[in-house]
Amino acid sequence: MVDWSRQSLIFTSEQPVRSAARALAAALGIELEETHRDGFVSFHAGGPDGESIGVMDTDAQRATSGSLPAEQREAVLASIPREPTSVLVHATGRAGSVVDALTSAGFTLTHRDPFPPADVQEADAAWARLLPELRSRGWEIDVTCFAAPVQLEGAVPEGDRFYYRCRWDTCSLDVGGDDPSAVGDWVGEQSLEGEYAASYLHPDEAVRILLELHGRWLREAGTG
Asked: DSSP assignment of 136-190, as one string?
């Protein structure tokens, strides 16, 4: 089950960035810090619940303002239809009150997602189930990267060190050697369909392939 107790919220405002920042600060009772970079302005603050809050110009305005000489910037920006100012309230545990306050102040809620994101929470729950199962079968195993690549390291039940990596469309298992993360004494691979199919592999599928490659190592290394 996805935990919605902390959320990431994205709003838009039809007001220019400075006016939107003033309205947000008043609605939430906070102070925003103004920053300047590459010719554009943004506002940032930390909220009382530990969230981070940002008020930003549109991507089109930022990209253009940073790439043109100062004397041309204003004329070009004036010719671009102004898109809504973007507001991000990240990882708040008081999402309901924030939504009420900002919508009452004229902001439009466009996205409301759990934090961490639902797919990350699902993966965390799957690893919490799978890793103890593997360890009970003799694996020394830790997840050292959750995605792009999916990466596991430790020792197989037979005692050899291993390095398992899934990225792009390939999962590979290196076993043995001084440093299997560089190159193992034995290397096995399995390809998947889709350019990024391995980079964001679900934990159940990642473990299934790991066990298949481990079985192949046992047969080819003559230890099975």
From this structure: HTT-EEEEEESSSSEEEEEE-TTS-EEEEEEETTEEEEEESSSBTTTB-SEEEEE
> Where are the strands (E) in 61-107, listed by range?
85-92
- Interval 64-86: pLDDT, tens: 555 666 666 667 666 666 678 99
The number of beta carbons lying within 10 Å of the beta carbon of residue 47 is 18
Q: What does the block give as tokens for 26?
A: 């008043």
pLDDT digits (tens, 9 = 90+) for 212-221: 999 999 999 8
Q: Can you tell me the distance from the alpha carbon of 210 to that of 215, in angstroms, rounded to the nearest whole number?
A: 9
For residue 167, pLDDT over 70 is answered with yes
Q: What is the CA radius of gyration of the chain?
A: 25
- Candidates 183, 172, 8, 169; CA nearest to 95 is 8
